Amino acid sequence: MSRQELFCEKNGKLHVGHTILTGFAFLSTSIAWAIYDPYITKILNRLLSESAWITQLSQKLNEIFPVLAEFAKTQGQDVSTAGGGITLVPLFIGVIMTFDNIFGVIFQPAFGKLSDRCRSKLGKRRPFIVYGAPVSAAIFALIPWVALSNSLPATMVCIILFVFSMSLWRAPAVALMPALTPPELRSEGNAIINLMGGVGSVIGMVAGTAVGAVYTLVTNTKVTAINEQSTSFPYVFLVGAVVMIIGMLVVRTFVKEPSSKIEIEAARNQALDEKAQLKAEKEAKKAAKKEQKLSKSERKSLICMLGGLFFLFCGTNAITTFFALFASEVLGKSTSEATIMTTLFAVCSAAAAIPAGKMGKKLGRKKTILIGLVIFMAVFLLYVLTGSMALIWVALIFGGFANMFITVNTLPLVLDIGGIDKVGTFTGYYYTATFSAQIASPIVYGIVRMFSGTYLSLFVYSPIMFILAILLILFVKHGEAVPEEVVKEVEMDND
After folding, report:
1. If 0-12 CB within 10 Å is exposed, 13-18 middle and 19+ buried, where does residue 221 land?
2. Backbone angles phi and psi of 8, in degrees to 5
3. What is the pLDDT at residue 221?
4. How far is Cα 115 from Cα 307, in angstroms, rounded to an integer?
5. ∠ CA(367), CA(368), CA(370), 5° rounding?
6. HSE (side-chain half, CA atoms, 13 Å) at 8
């Protein structure tokens, strides 16, 4: 069975059913991360707060710098705890929560490239998914049980093993659909794959609520913020692990990759042809390199946009990483209740996708991004200034819409600064900026939380990041979509 038969109808259109089956690989990764961020931060918060080593380290820091305790008092922090002054717990949480991004930057490209060269009975991508997903699922399910032993080192070993095992098959899982889909259908296929990822995220977000309801029904014991780590957490992680296994089995059973000797030999010949073609293209690009350089104005736009992206993702990453702790400490919500709130944010983001694209086309990408940032910043600051519980829901709803106004338009803007010949290079620039932010932000906000004494500072930190992003993006003068009639006119003039 060929790729064309798998992913195309006879009329040349995308085979939606087969593409959905392929999307179960991405669904498996999405549910894991939807559970990981809010639940792991709560687990780490408890273990680090109870750690004698962290307490002693905090005490030493406060002894060396007694002014820190005085500062903490002025911020309303109870210095009778946290080693007699500020606590290092938020900083350590921030550092640990960067591990998945660090591992992703180091290992995902390598294993993605390795899957390009893989030849097996299961194909090129599926071996990584078939063997990697069960290992990740097993470690994932084990984390909350190990955490209940109150062993911070053992829990850290599980967390590190999990993020490492996930980095081994995430890239092949994402590459599966493009590898099996004709180039002209990949945009349509990618929309379905992202939809499957969204389904996985929503399942992960509502798993806590569902598990809590079932637990209460069976045991007649209500799940609270105090007992949730020993009652519902293990089963939430188990749900995520089971869905990961199901996703893997769907891919293993229903998604076929080239595996016969003839197909493998053809793939090898194609790879050799592609290598020769790439070499020829590389030589041609070298000859035209001087003509392809960015102008001074374009370079300035690129630098400002990448800087804006860095601060933008610093703000959004802090929200996704620490929102569960904010909801617990400030709002008094359980983790399952916090995930309901983040689910509302995700649903609003999805609903705004198509309008955001239309706004970018009508108003311009830069204006749409700035509108999104201003809305995001305004609703967050409004909540901080009033402290109204109703306004946190307003912030989540409008923040969800604003998030998509930004997300839909940032990558196209960056790519259009470079032009059609530099899409790969500028995609790399984009992800370098965003991954750097996701590594730095948990650490930076961990320090902010350490000195502020409350997770309410999250709603101040993120708007400050958004203001910095706005200031940089204001200097971006390139990257808007060029109207088709203008392109045709330029081509005619060149001819």
Report:
1. exposed
2. -130, 140
3. 84
4. 32
5. 65
6. 17
Output the pLDDT for position 84: 47
Q: Of 74, 64, 68, nearest to 91 (Cα)?
A: 68
User: Which domains are delineated in the chain?
Assistant: 1-258 (1.20.1250.20), 295-481 (1.20.1250.20)
Which segments of the chain have a pLDDT < 50?
Answer: 1-5, 74-76, 79, 81-84, 260-262, 264, 267, 287-291, 424, 483-492, 494-495
Task: Say how far apart CA 322 and CA 320 lie, in whole Å.
Answer: 6
- Determine the pLDDT at residue 342: 78
Cα 85 from Cα 63, distance rounded (Å): 9
Question: Environment class of residue 351 by beta-carbon count within 10 Å: exposed (0-12), middle (13-18) or buried (19+)?
Answer: middle
Question: What stretches of 386-461 adopt beta strand conformation (E)?
Answer: none
CA atoms of 397 and 257, how far apart (whole Å): 41
- For residue 73, the tally of other CB atoms under 10 A from its CB is 13
Quote the tokens at residue 310: 């860095």
CB burial string 135-166: b at 16+ within 10 A, e below: bbbebbbbbbebbeeeebeebeebbebbbbbb
Which distant-in-sequence residues (6+ apart) come within 8 Å of 378 by Cβ? none
- Phi, psi for 106 (deg, rounded to 5): -80, -50
Q: What is the pLDDT of residues 230-286, one digit of tens each?
A: 888 999 999 999 999 999 999 999 888 765 444 545 545 555 555 556 665 555 555
Q: What is the pLDDT of residues 148-161, one digit of tens each?
A: 999 999 999 999 99
Tell me the backbone φ, ψ of residue 14, rounded to 5 degrees. -65, 135
pTM for this model (two decimals): 0.66
| b/e 92-115 (16+ beta carbons within 10 angstroms → b) | bbbebbbbbbebbbebbeebbeeb
Phi then psi for 255, rounded to 5 degrees? -100, 125
> What tokens were used for 472?
């940089």
Nearest-Å Rg of the Cα atoms of the chain is 24
Burial of 491 (0-12, 13-18, 19+ CB in 10 A): exposed
Long-range CB pairs of 158-166, under 8 A, 24+ apart, other chains included: 159/40, 159/96, 159/99, 160/99, 162/36, 162/136, 163/99, 163/100, 163/103, 164/103, 164/107, 165/132, 165/135, 165/136, 165/139, 166/29, 166/32, 166/100, 166/103, 166/132, 166/136
